[in-house]
């Protein structure tokens, strides 16, 4: 009986090891390719992002920084900051404390590299 218990325990441990190893998650991206809801720190990195503006000139770009992700994310109480504009380019700072960022009709976003710090020898 002990041998049977040992075999079952070994099989369970092996299965847990195989299932637990899985595929490592990718690092958060520094670009937002299309419309959608993106989780900060999971899907995208915090930072300053820039978009060229609306992909369809007859519609406005709608973006939102969210403190909570729930449902369709249109509830105003979840929005930290947002804008609805037909002008471009557009810049937004996604903060590490944001839960998510949603974008609609803004085109792709790219992270703007931080400005160099320090003096240039002056």
Question: What would you note in describing this structure?
Answer:
The chain is an alpha+beta fold. 16% of the residues lie in helices and 30% in strands. The protein contains 1 helix and 8 strands; from the N terminus they run αββββββββ. The longest helix has 20 residues. The radius of gyration is 22 Å and the shape is globular. The N and C termini lie far apart (81 Å).
Structural features:
122 residues; 4-stranded antiparallel sheet; 8 strands; alpha+beta; 30% strand; 1 helix
Percent range for β-strand residues: 25-35%
Mean pLDDT: 81
What is the radius of gyration computed over CA atoms, rounded to a whole number of angstroms? 22 Å
Largest sheet, strands/sense/barrel: 4 strands, antiparallel
Q: By helix and strand content, what is the structural category?
A: alpha+beta
User: Helical percent range?
Assistant: 10-25%
Topology:
Layout: H1 2-21, E1 31-32, E2 36-39, E3 47-51, E4 61-66, E5 79-85, E6 90-94, E7 100-104, E8 109-111
Antiparallel strand pairs: 1-8, 2-7, 3-6, 3-8, 4-5, 4-7
């Amino acid at each position: 009986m002990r041998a049977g218990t040992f075999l079952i325990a070994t099989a369970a441990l092996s299965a847990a090891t195989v299932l637990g190893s899985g595929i490592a998650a990718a690092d958060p991206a520094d670009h937002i390719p299309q419309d959608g809801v993106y989780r900060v720190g999971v899907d995208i990195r915090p930072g300053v992002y820039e978009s060229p503006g609306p992909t369809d000139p007859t519609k406005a770009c709608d973006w939102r920084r969210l403190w909570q992700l729930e449902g369709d994310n249109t509830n105003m109480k979840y929005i930290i900051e947002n804008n609805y504009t037909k002008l471009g380019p557009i810049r937004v700072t996604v903060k590490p404390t944001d839960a998510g960022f949603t974008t609609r009709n803004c085109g792709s976003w790219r992270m703007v590299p931080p400005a160099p710090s320090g003096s240039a020898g002056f």
